[in-house]
Amino acid sequence: MHANTESTQIILGEQPLSCAAVERVARGLAQAHLSHAPDFTARIARGARVISDRLERGVPTYGVNTGFGASVRNAVPREAAVALARNLPRYHGCGVGPFLTREESRAVLLVRANSLAAGYSGVRYVLIERLIELLAHDIVPLIPARGSVGASGDLTPLSYVAALLAGERQALVQGEVLESREALGRAQLEPLQLQPKESLAIMNGTSVMAALASLACERAGRLAEVANALTALTIDALAGQHGHFDARLFMAKAHPGQASSAATIRKYLGAPSTPPPQPSRIQERYSLRCAPHIIGVVLDLLPFARRTLETEINGASDNPLVDPASGDVLHGGNFYGGHVAMVADALKSAVANLADLMERQLMLLTSPETNNGLPENLVALSGPERFAHHGFKAMEITASALTAEALKLCMPASVFSRSTEGHNQDKVSMGSLAVRDLQQILDLTETVAGVHAMAAAQAIELRGLKHTSHPLRSLHAAIRQHSAFVTEDRPLDSEIEAVTDFLRRGL
Asked: Is 120 a catalytic residue?
């Protein structure tokens, strides 16, 4: 595992969030705090005063004394403004589908708190502080995954955050589902009465899609490292060409990602203790020879993806925004999730190509026409009884099925904009859909990697480990902690899951 030198304390209002920091807080490896600096608290207070002053003076302000969305033409009397704020999350309580995981919901709370801490949202300090307190007590809302078109932000899924703050709906506390009011009570927290603009500020932003995309970026980075390692393991098992990863090739066309991939593969291949046998082919098939060029696309895309997402999670993504310096209220569209959708749609194809790469390498290992003398389907037995066993035959079929499903999900989600909400939201990002697709592709590709790893470990044992480098021996030993050598046919489903979980955590 790589050494983690990142801070375990994240101070919102004083430092920008990174995608890596979002993941650490989501997993409980770092704690989030809210700045108490006088300049910061004063800025937040000024924004909240702007909203209360405009309400008092009757100045038309979207979502404060008007209806929402296409209902903006409806004036709301001052005495009904608190009811307006209370009802917004209530009528958006129509999310469907599976719930986000605990880690995903923690990421959402963090990212939404950070967006509000930018100081443009006109909310009270206590509201942002309460989001941080929920993280500290590990109380998260139960958020259904479906119901957002990603343009007026993630309105419906974020309504579950607003509802938890108000003591409504349900929460997850240490694996237990509780009514929100009970969950807050256990932590000695009182429900908040959300003030005008506050429920809108919580809901009208991109924090669900951006949080989940941040987690996905970190997974994609670990998966690229796994693909590098398994490429090296496959080359070793096939007694293949090491020269395809010569650094001079990658100086001649200097995409940094493919150069990095090739360098990592060289590191894993290492220097064998004894000279390896002469490769049977002067050039390997493309799934080996071009592996750095495929993995490198992910590695080159990730820095751009992280920069884009970090701009999103450190910005103010609701509407309207308050300029604390001038007191102006700015009506705009920062809730639009187009950048998140673009990142997710791009990563979908890049990650799915890793699934395709690893499935093709797996096929090379199992087929006697391509595996350079290894037994068909990596069957370990010899003699007539070997014909009663089929080794990794069905494993290759499983990997093929998973790969096809991953590839099918690559259709860009952002092009499926739908006019909705009385044609007010007439162009939408579908960012949340793009991110859900990406999550599914990651799940599938990580599982393909698990199947591939088991086959490659089987293959290098069948070949013999005398030419295998120390890094690959260590990887082989780690795989063997979760799946034993296959001598006779046996069910491998639980072992696939165990190896996949090991790889998902990163090498």
From this structure: no
